[in-house]
Every structure is written in C-alpha cells, then in structure tokens.
Design brief:
Radius of gyration: 23 Å
Helix content: 25-40%
Structural class: alpha/beta
Strand content: 5-15%
Number of strands: 15
Shape: globular
Strand order of the largest sheet: 3-2-1-4-15
Number of helices: 20
Length: 502
C-alpha cells in the first residue's frame, strides 16, 4: 500500500469525459485527449490493498488490482504494465468496454465510493503502448502442433495469443472481412477506437498467429475438413443469434436488428463507405431493449443526427441504492447513466429511457414504412401490459436491441461437427471446455486429433468482454493440456463459473 490514508484524504474522482456537445460532433472516444495520469495516480492511492481483495472476486480474470494500483500510485508504469498483462491479454479493451464489476466488489463500496479501478486500468493500458511495453512475444520453439480458432472476438483472440506464445501454430478463421468480431463491428468508435484493436492484431501477427478472413467455417470450408487439418479446434463464434420481437407490424420497413445497424455505422468509420445504408439522420428513433447494445445504438443515432431518440426498457426503473437481495460485493442492478444517455439528456433534459414498458405493435404509412410504435406500461412481476396505459410514440427508425439467444443454430458448423446444445441454447461442453457432440462425420478424425473446444459466448451465452477474455485464456490452457499432456498456461475460470450473486 503506497498511501494507507489515501482513501481518507481523496474522494472518488473519475476521469471526466469530454463535453457532450464536443463529442457529439465526432466519432472519437468520449475520453479522447483527456489528461489522466495525475488524477489516476492520486485515485490509485485510494486502494487499501485489502487483506482479502474482493475486487478479485468481481473480476473473472482475477486481475491483480491492488498490485497495479500501488505501482500506478508510484507512477511505476512498467511494473504496473507487467502486473496488468499477467492476467489480461487485452487491458485496453476491458479498460474501455467492461462495466467494471470489480468496482462494485471493492471493499470501499461497503460504506463509501469505490476506487476508480477502470480508469486506472485504462491509463496503465495506454501507457503500455506509449512506452513500448507491448513488444511481440513469439515462442522460443514450436511444438509441431496446429490449432484452428474459429471466430476472432475477444475469446478467440485471447485463446489464439496464449496458444501461439506457448509454441503451437495457430490459425484464426473469421467470416467477416476484418478481424475482431463484435469488437470490430459491434462496438462503436466512440467507445473504443479501432486502432487499439489493430495494433493488437499487428502484435499477434508478429508473434506468429495467422489470420484467415472472409472464410465461414461450415460454408466456405467444411468444418470436418478443418478438424482433419489441425490437431485441435477452438470454437469461439460468439452468441450471434439475435432475439426477435413477434408483434404486429414487424414486417414494416424501417425496423432493424440493432447489431445490423451498428455494423453499417462502423463500416462508415472504417472507411468502407461514405454513408450507412440505414441512418438515423432526421428520424425519430426508438430503441427496444435496455442493455448496452441499446445504449450503443443511442450514441450512434445521436451522432448521425437523429431528430429524437427513445429507449424502451421492459424492466422497472432501478433505484439508486443496492436492494437487500443484492448485497455487497455482488454487481447490483442500480440506476446507471451511460455516456449515450448523458448525451441524450443534454438535448431533452430528461432520461431518454422509458422503463416498465412493452411494445404492442407497429403502425405504418401507405408505403409500408413504420411511423408509430404503440406501447403500454407493464406490471413489474408478470410484465403483462396494464389496461388503459396504451399510447403511441413517433417512430421512423426502430432498432431491436433485445439481446442474443446464443450461437447461431442454423449454420453448417453445428451440423458438420455434431455440436449439441445445452439447456440455455449454447453449445454444450464438458468440465474441460471440450465440445459435447452427437455422432457427425469426422469422429475418428477428432479422436485422432486433440479434440474440439468451446470458448466464450458460444458456450457461456451473452456475457461481458472480461468474461470472454477469461474464457479464451482458460480454453487455451485446456487445449494445451490436451495437446501437450500438461500446461503452464493459467485458467482463471471453469465452464460452470458465473458472476458473483447473492
């Protein structure tokens, strides 16, 4: 502990975002250009270096938070970088995208404000690159074993980097035209500029990882053939099955899945086109779904020049404090404001979300385009519409941000490998992350090779980026153990692990 009285001397002071009107005029990160180091070093000194650091329990990666807080307080960025990289392949991703359940598990949260762990992590991650602490780490020797990783999201990339560094020859297959999965096309530029992703890919290339874009396993390349070519296969295709909203009027033009809309917007910022095929410019936008994807759609629509933006959430408005059923150190459902909500409030002066509401139907004009959304208040427990509460709101563009049911079930990948589903609709796997299969073609080849492993949201279901990276690291350890007989790679989580709950 660098300052045993730091939490008494300094109040919590997060790094401030750029002014709303400034950031609405560009696609740069909301914190771009903000001075961090003096404030971060002061805030890191609030860490108490607890005997039992519950922040570790809140983080599936087991990040060594008190250790790198101490080094950040002393401005020893090289030591802080080493401790951060010891558990996290991509701290610049988590420092920007993770909702920081570690902060809600901070011991200070019992009766005060937690340490600004996320700000400290992002500052260290940025110093890693600015000071040259992220040199490629190619293996000293090759094992002679080959591994195919299907999917290049955070789980796939983490697994690939770990396996490459231990000496296996790894090829990552991605069906999109660029590497990154939802990090590339699902996360808006204002939350994470893609230069952070690009330089990690360059690092991995220098380490020896191979990337194959524009290849859909199960369609462009038979999955059983992939198994025969490699000693092991890691399936990390994410949970891309998008939930639908089967209400009258769904067929009207102007109603889109949120992820399709975000992908089109991201392609503009990537330079693929001058304008998106679907834009919010001048339109009344309604986002159905109260999660992070809906918030990302809101920030995107505001930057595109929407006339208005409303976000519908079927859940009741949460309170400001923890409920008795969500005691410390669990991650509580409390009232939170994202940067996009803050931006929308700047225009309307009120929260852009409508809580405890359900969509009843859509109504359109003579051309078949959506023009109005009919909604009603819902009973909190049953979520049934309350009689007499129906009303309409204008809607020229509707975005469905209802989450994901799991990996896509209608692809050739599932049938060709004989992958089965668990009770939640995810790819079934055993206690060692191995795929539980039926009896498809290629069983003999799989027995001869190292097996098939399921990583990330494909096996866990829709989750956070920090869980995806933890999954990738754990699957890499399981794969290496299968190929080598033992492993020195860390495995921070098991397949059955879940976030801390009461």
């Amino acid at each position: 502990m660098s300052d045993p009285h730091g939490f008494l001397k300094f109040p919590r002071r997060p790094v401030p975002a750029r002014p709303v009107q400034e950031r609405l005029n560009d696609w740069n990160e909301v914190y771009a250009g903000q001075a961090r180091l003096p404030l971060v070093s002061e805030q890191a000194g609030r860490c108490m270096d607890c005997g039992i650091p519950f922040c570790h329990s809140g983080c599936p990666l087991g990040n060594l938070i008190p250790e790198w807080n101490t080094y950040a307080r002393r401005e020893n960025w090289q030591a802080a970088a080493e401790r951060l990289h010891a558990t996290n392949n991509f701290p610049e991703f988590t420092g920007r995208l993770c909702p920081a359940p570690c902060e809600d598990a901070c011991v200070l949260t019992i009766n005060a404000d937690p340490v600004t762990i996320k700000n400290v992590e992002q500052a260290i991650a940025d110093q890693i690159w600015e000071r040259g602490y992220a040199a490629p780490r190619p293996p000293e020797r090759l094992s002679g074993k080959t591994v195919a990783v299907v999917g290049s999201g955070p789980a796939g990339l983490a697994a690939a980097q770990q396996l490459t560094r231990i000496g296996h020859t790894v090829a990552v297959y991605e069906r999109a035209d660029r590497i990154g999965g939802l990090l590339r096309y699902g996360i808006p530029e204002f939350k994470m500029e893609k230069r952070h992703l690009d330089r990690r890919i360059e690092q991995m290339l220098a380490e020896g990882t191979k990337f194959r874009t524009g290849v859909e396993i199960g369609s462009d390349l038979d999955a059983s053939e992939l198994v025969e070519r490699h000693d092991a296969v890691v399936i990390a295709v994410g949970a891309r099955g998008q939930r639908e909203l089967p209400v009258p009027g769904r067929e009207l033009h102007g109603i889109h899945q949120a992820m399709d809309y975000l992908t089109l917007a991201n392609r503009v910022t990537q330079g693929d086109c001058d304008a998106p095929a679907v834009t919010a410019e001048g339109k009344h936008v309604v986002i159905i779904g109260g999660g992070d994807t809906g918030s990302d759609c809101m920030g995107t629509a505001l930057r595109q020049g929407a006339a208005s933006v409303v976000q519908l959430d079927i859940n009741p408005e949460p309170g400001d404090d923890r409920s008795d059923s969500e005691p410390w150190p669990v991650y509580p459902k409390i009232y939170r404001i994202s940067h996009a909500h803050e931006e929308a409030r700047g225009r309307r002066g009120a929260d852009p979300r409508v809580f405890a509401s359900a969509t009843l139907r859509f109504e359109g004009d003579r051309t078949g385009r959506v023009r109005e959304l009919r909604l009603a208040e819902v009973e909190p427990e049953t979520r049934r519409p309350l009689p007499g509460t129906e009303r309409g709101i204008p809607a020229d563009l509707v975005l469905l941000a209802l989450g994901f049911y799991g990996p896509e079930h209608d692809t050739g990948l599932m049938g060709q490998l004989g992958l089965t589903l668990d009770g939640r609709g995810n790819f079934a796997r055993d206690a060692g992350f191995g795929a539980e299969t039926a009896d498809p073609p290629g069983r003999a080849a799989r027995r001869r090779t190292g097996g098939i492993f399921i990583a990330g949201d494909a096996g866990r279901g829709q989750s956070l980026v920090v869980w995806a990276i933890a999954e990738g690291r754990s699957v890499a350890a399981a794969t290496d153990r299968c190929l080598s007989g033992s492993t020195v790679l860390p495995a921070p989580i098991a397949p059955q692990d879940r976030p801390l709950v009461a």
